[in-house]
Design brief:
The protein is of the alpha/beta class and 736 residues long. Helix 8 runs antiparallel to helix 9 (242-250). It is built from 26 helices and 23 strands.
C-alpha cells in the first residue's frame, strides 16, 4: 500500500520537487546483487544470451561486475571477458575471479596490444559470441539481479532487435547520483520513458534517436545477434558517439523494447573532465549523426528543432572557428510568413508543400500566420492540416519570430513583404516567394500601387513559372529565380477503370477574378447550345450560380476526386488571366487535353502540344472546346502529348529546383536574371462562325452567385478595408 501511495505521489510531483527527492537519494547505496544468490546454469528453456565484458583498467570494479552477471535470475549462455591490454592489475584480478568460479566456464581473452577503440572490442565480442543475443557489459557498470529477466521479455516480440532497461546513475562508491537517466532526455520528451514500451525502430529513430543518444549506457542493452559486425565496423570512426550510431543503424531493421525499471547501474566517475577539444569532438559527431538521420528519415520541424536544442546547449563552449567549420552541418532555420489559410487555396497549398519538402530535406521550417482571429498555434496548425492535408512545420499565429532564422520568405504582397523588409533582427537573409502578379488582384488604386511597390524592395525572389520571373525582372528589376510548373504524378495520372464521358470539366472560382469565371460560363453556355448532349461539370468553389443551362456543380473536391474527374472528361477548361494555374498541368498529367486563354502570361510555361489557347472571348473559348469535342484524333493527340510532357515534370522536379534556389540563397549565390523565352508556338483559336451565330444565347445570362451576390460583395468590401488598414499601419510599425 505504501509503495502504491509513493508511486502516485511521484507521478504528480513537479520537476523541482523531484530534483530534491533525487538529491535525497544520493546518500543511499544501491544493492548490486543478493549475496545469497546462487549461480543458475543455463537450460534450453531460456534464450541463448552471450555476455561480453570488455575491460580496460577497471580492476576495482571487475569482480562486482562479474558477480552481477553470474547471479542473474535469468541464466546466461556464456560469459566472455576481453581485456584490452590493461595497465593496472585487471588481468590478475580476473584470473583470480575465474579460479573462484571454477564450476562456471568463463572464456578470458587478453589482447597483445591495446585496440585503440572500444568498438574494436564490440566487434570482437559479436564475432566470438555463440548465443542468439549479445549483452555487452562495461566493466565498471553493474546491474540488478533481475535485469536480464526483465529485458529479455522484450524479445517475446520476434521483430525486436534491441531491448534495454532504464539506467540508474551511481558513483564510484555505489551511491545513487540519480534514480534514472530520464533527465538527460527531457529535451526529447518528458513522458516517453515513464512506462515500458515496444516501438517500431524507424519511429523510435524519428521520435528519439534523431535528437540524441537516448540510450545512455550500452550495459543496459541486449542485442539480437544478426549481421551486426558491419555496423560496428562503421561505428569505429566515432570516438564518443559510436554506440548511438550502432543503435540508430540497428533500429532501421526492426523494433525496440524498453523496460522503465532502473535495473542497470551506470557508473559516473568524478575525475572525468570536459575540455573544449572534447566538446568540439562531441558536437562534430552529434551533428554528423543528426545530419545522417535527416537524410534517411522524414522528420518534422519540431524534431529538427529538438536537434538544434541539443547541440545549442553546448556549442557556445567551443571556439568561433569551430562554429564556422560545422555551420554547414547544422540544420538551417527557415521562416514563412503566410496569409490566413483559405480552404481550397492552391497558392497556400503550394507554400505548405514546399515548406514540408524543405523539412524532409533536413531544414527547420516555421510558419507564421499574419493575422490572429483568436486562434492558438495548435488550432491554426489543425486548420492547415484540415485544408491542405499535411504540415511538418511549427505553426505560430502572429508575426513575432521566436528564434533567429537563416532565411525568411514573404509570400503574399499585402503586408508580408513589409513585415520582412522592415524587420531589423532575427533574420539573416530575406526572400520573396511569388506565385502571381498580385497587384492585378485589386482595382487600380492605392492598394494596387502599394502591392506593386513590394517588388522594388530587392528581396531575392523565387516564382513559380517562367513568365512571372520574366515580368518581374524586366519591369521591376526584381532579382528572380523560378521553379517549373509541375504536378504530383502519384495523384494526377491515367486511371484504367474510369469510363470516358462526353463531358467538360471547368475550374469555376467566381471569388477569384483572375480565373475569369464569366468568360468560362458564357463559353460553356454556347457549347451547350451547340452540343446539347455534352455534360458540364463545375468544381473548385462552394459558390452556386443560377443558370437556365444544366451544369453540375461538384464544389471543392479532394485532389484524388479531381483526378477521377479529369479521367472521365473529354476536355478540361481553365481560365488563367495572370500567372498560370497548376490546374492545366494537373489535367495534362491525367491525359486530359486543356483549353485556356491566349495571353502572354501563358506563353512561357504552357506547352503547345497539350493545350489549346483561345482568344480572350467566350466565343473563342467555346470554339476551342468544340474543336476538341468534335475531333477525336486531335483530342487524343493533345491528351497523349500533354501526358508525356508532364512525365518530365513530376512535383519532385519543382521541389528540387526550389531547393537549389534555397541553397543558393543560403550560400549567398546570386540568382539568375530571369530572362526566358516563350514555349507556346500555336496561333490562338479564334471564334468560329458556328459559335458567333448563337451569341445571342448569352446576352442576358447573369453570372452571379446564387442567392448571395450582395453578401459576397459585402464580404469583399470588408476584406479590402481590413487589408488597407493593416497595410497602412505596417510601415509605421516597422519604420520605428
Amino acid at each position: 500500500m505504501k509503495t502504491k501511495i509513493k508511486k502516485a505521489i511521484l507521478k504528480i510531483t513537479p520537476d523541482f520537487v523531484y530534483e530534491k527527492y533525487r538529491d535525497a537519494k544520493a546518500n543511499k547505496h544501491v544493492t548490486i546483487y543478493n549475496q545469497n544468490s546462487k549461480f543458475t546454469k543455463y537450460t534450453s528453456k531460456y534464450k541463448k544470451v552471450s555476455v561480453i565484458v570488455p575491460n580496460y583498467n577497471y580492476e576495482h570494479y571487475i569482480e562486482e561486475r562479474i558477480d552481477s552477471i553470474l547471479f542473474q535470475t535469468y541464466p546466461i549462455y556464456e560469459l566472455i571477458i576481453l581485456d584490452d591490454k590493461s595497465t593496472d592489475n585487471s588481468v590478475e584480478k580476473i584470473e583470480q575471479i575465474i579460479k573462484k568460479h571454477q564450476e562456471i566456464k568463463i572464456k578470458f581473452i587478453k589482447n597483445e596490444k591495446n585496440s585503440g577503440s572500444v568498438f574494436s572490442q564490440w566487434q570482437k565480442a559479436f564475432s566470438l559470441a555463440k548465443g542468439d543475443y549479445v549483452w555487452i557489459c562495461e566493466a565498471d557498470d553493474s546491474c540488478n539481479k533481475d535485469f536480464l529477466k526483465n529485458v529479455m521479455l522484450g524479445f517475446n516480440d520476434k521483430d525486436v532487435v534491441l531491448s534495454y532497461a532504464e539506467s540508474m546513475r551511481i558513483d564510484e562508491n555505489n551511491r545513487i547520483i540519480s534514480p534514472s537517466c530520464r533527465d538527460w532526455m527531457l529535451a526529447v520528451s518528458k513522458t516517453k520513458w515513464n512506462k515500458s514500451y515496444i516501438n517500431d525502430g524507424a519511429e523510435e529513430i524519428k521520435e528519439a534517436l534523431a535528437v540524441c543518444n537516448t540510450i545512455p549506457n550500452v550495459s543496459a542493452v541486449v542485442f539480437k545477434k544478426s549481421n551486426q559486425i558491419e555496423v560496428i565496423e562503421q561505428a569505429k570512426r566515432f570516438k564518443i558517439s559510436g554506440d548511438w550510431y550502432v543503435y540508430y543503424q540497428l533500429l532501421s531493421k526492426g523494433k525496440i523494447a524498453y523496460c522503465h525499471k532502473s535495473l542497470n547501474y551506470f557508473r559516473k566517475h568524478s575525475k572525468s573532465t570536459s575540455t573544449v577539444a572534447s566538446r568540439e569532438l562531441e558536437i562534430t559527431e552529434l551533428l554528423t549523426i543528426q545530419s545522417d538521420i535527416r537524410k534517411n528519415y522524414e522528420l518534422n520541424s519540431e524534431q529538427i528543432h529538438k536537434q538544434s536544442f541539443r547541440y545549442g546547449a553546448i556549442i557556445n563552449e567551443t571556439s568561433d572557428s569551430f562554429r564556422n567549420e560545422v555551420s554547414s552541418m547544422i540544420a538551417k532555420k527557415i521562416a514563412w510568413i503566410i496569409p490566413w489559410p483559405i480552404k481550397g487555396s492552391g497558392g497556400i497549398r503550394t507554400m505548405i508543400q514546399n515548406a514540408n519538402f524543405l523539412v524532409r530535406k533536413g531544414f527547420e521550417c516555421d510558419i507564421y500566420v499574419e493575422e490572429d482571429y483568436a486562434n492558438t498555434n495548435e488550432s491554426m496548425k489543425k486548420r492547415i492540416i484540415e485544408y491542405y492535408g499535411e504540415c511538418l512545420c511549427n505553426v505560430y499565429v502572429g508575426i513575432d519570430f521566436k528564434k533567429e532564422y537563416d532565411l525568411a520568405f514573404a509570400t503574399y504582397s499585402i503586408k508580408t513583404p513589409d513585415y520582412l523588409y522592415y524587420m531589423k533582427k532575427n533574420v539573416k537573409r530575406k526572400a520573396y516567394f511569388i506565385q502571381d502578379f498580385e497587384p492585378w488582384f485589386e482595382p487600380m488604386g492605392g492598394l494596387y500601387l502599394e502591392m506593386e511597390h513590394t517588388y522594388k524592395y530587392g528581396l531575392s525572389g523565387v516564382s513559380i513559372g517562367k513568365w512571372l520571373a520574366h515580368k518581374l525582372t524586366n519591369e521591376f528589376n526584381q532579382p528572380m529565380n523560378y521553379f517549373s510548373f509541375c504536378a504530383d504524378t502519384n495523384v494526377y495520372k491515367k486511371l484504367k477503370n474510369v469510363k470516358k464521358e462526353n463531358a467538360i470539366c471547368f475550374i469555376f472560382q467566381p471569388d477569384k477574378a483572375r480565373r475569369c469565371s464569366n468568360i468560362g460560363i458564357k463559353a460553356l453556355i454556347l457549347v451547350k447550345k451547340l452540343r446539347p448532349d455534352v455534360k458540364i461539370y463545375l468544381y473548385g468553389s462552394d459558390v452556386d450560380i443560377k443558370l437556365d443551362v444544366e451544369m453540375e456543380n461538384l464544389h471543392i473536391m479532394p485532389i484524388t476526386k479531381c483526378n477521377e474527374l479529369y479521367n472521365k472528361c473529354s476536355v478540361g477548361v481553365c481560365m488563367s488571366s495572370s500567372n498560370p494555374s497548376r490546374i492545366p498541368f494537373e489535367m495534362m498529367a491525367a491525359g486530359l487535353p486543356v483549353v485556356d486563354l491566349y495571353r502572354e502570361n501563358n506563353l512561357y510555361d504552357i506547352p503547345d502540344d497539350g493545350v489549346l489557347l483561345a482568344d480572350t472571348s467566350p466565343e473563342a473559348v467555346a470554339t476551342a472546346i468544340i474543336k476538341l469535342l468534335d475531333d477525336e484524333k486531335l483530342r487524343n493527340k493533345l491528351g497523349k502529348a500533354g501526358y508525356e510532357y508532364m512525365q518530365k515534370y513530376p512535383i519532385e522536379r519543382g521541389f528540387d529546383e526550389f531547393l537549389k534556389f534555397v541553397n543558393d540563397m543560403l550560400n549567398d549565390i546570386n540568382v539568375p536574371d530571369g530572362n526566358v523565352t516563350k514555349i507556346y508556338k500555336r496561333e490562338p483559336v479564334l471564334p468560329s462562325q458556328e459559335v458567333i451565330n448563337v451569341m445571342d444565347a448569352i446576352k442576358e445570362v447573369p453570372i452571379v452567385p446564387k442567392d448571395s451576390s450582395k453578401f459576397v460583395r459585402k464580404l469583399v468590401v470588408i476584406k479590402r478595408y481590413i487589408r488597407r488598414k493593416y497595410a497602412s499601419i505596417i510601415h509605421k510599425i516597422f519604420r520605428v
